[in-house]
Predict the structure of Metalloregulator ArsR/SmtB family transcription factor.
Amino acid sequence: MTDDELVDALKALAHPVRLRIMRALTGAERNVGEIDEASGIGQPILSQQLAVLRNAGLVKTRKDAKLVYYRIDDSMLAKVASAAGQLGGLSATSVRQSRHPAPGVANFARLG
């Protein structure tokens, strides 16, 4: 994944309407009417935002007669999550352990 592709995908996900669309598509393939019903977004905004998600590679489409079905591109979303995790030093196989402050002790922000 190139930096430009990652930036486009992160921008696409960082919009409240597009995030609602992605949530509506979680675990399901839906046509535009079903996405509208599940998300309450409405036309033509829904079509515009689906185009942004499609251009960013976050959703795939399948046409069946006159209906277009959308689904999340799991492999692309996994690449985005992996790239974002690497920014914080995380990987798919490791999870950063969080610090727990000691009771009764002053805790200061750690810069570094």
